[in-house]
Amino acid sequence: MVTSTPIAPPTVLPAAPGGACPFDPPSAYRQAGLEGPVTAGELPDGSFCWLVTGHQEVRTVLSDHRFSADARRPGFPFLSPGRRSLAVNSPSFIRMDDPEHSRLRRMVTKDFLVKRVEAMRPGIKLIVDEAIDRMTEGAGAADLVADFALPVPSLVICLLLGVPYEDHELFQSRSRTLLDTTASQQAVETAMDELLAYLTGLATDKHRHPGDDILSRLAVREDLSPEETAATGLLLLVAGHETTANMISLSTLALLRRPEQAARLRADPGLVRGAVEELLRYVTIIQSGLPRLATEDVELGGRTVRAGDGLICMLSTANRDESMFEASDELDVERDARRHLAFGFGVHQCLGQPLARVELQIALESLLRRLPDLRVAVPPEELVFRTDTIVYGLASLPVAW
User: N or C: which end of the chain has fewer CB within 10 A?
Assistant: First the structure.
């Protein structure tokens, strides 16, 4: 009698338990990576997908036209019904292929060019300094998330987009729902509809009275539908504050947990630019991966990926690939980490990465310089990490100085 060897159950992707260190990729993804850079996985609905964990393999998928980012294709992998609803009902260019993708992306590319963002440094520094002033005024303790990490990028993206900052509670609360992997499809659709209605109303006003902001420039274009304007505005608004806010708070925590690393940056502020790249690699806030769909049969990492197969590219494990980053589990602010994949790779890599880099550089340098005695004000076990969201982060970060 012939018996077959039992096959281990495939990895379930979203909301995986974290590693021993809160900055490590979820242990289930790292375990999958030990079996090879491309392994069989399973989505929450039970459908098959490939889990891509190797650095080179992730780069290949994200840069090869045979792997589609179009969420409307049959079989495209989703982490939840809410994610499917958001991608299909409010399609932004990050979930499109060329030529649609490049047509829409080009409309806002110039607003995030390195030269333009570098010219914003004085204004961003003013926002950061004022946030630190408010946080420290008459107090010796604060919640770094609510009092600093969230307001800074929210103010910056509001200025760029032309969104009134006084509406921040509206867009911040809806953004959290859109990114929540546990939110019901109805909750996601309601939050999406409310944000789209809000942005459509703003765009309508700006069409009549345009200003010097991104939403105004989109609103007056004749080659852009109102739906496309609102969807692009939603993408920039949500991604423009949630991702950077979580990176600021997690990066601060990582440095406070490695005081010798923070000391290096205080002693030599010139290291901050490189340190930000290392922190982006080390933290990697997109822990649930980037989805793609194979449009042809492709050999990848020793596996045959068939046309119609879904793939999830695990940026977090790719950024800990020992073949690319020696001693990858260690934070080293003097490491050359420029080949990290925290912003993705290929034509879909993060449009706002120049802005995120500048915000992180200014925020971290200012915090370390102005608050030399900054410390976490609660025991490590009391910190609450947000694992039920597309963008990994901290619920709060009590600090004192």
Answer: N
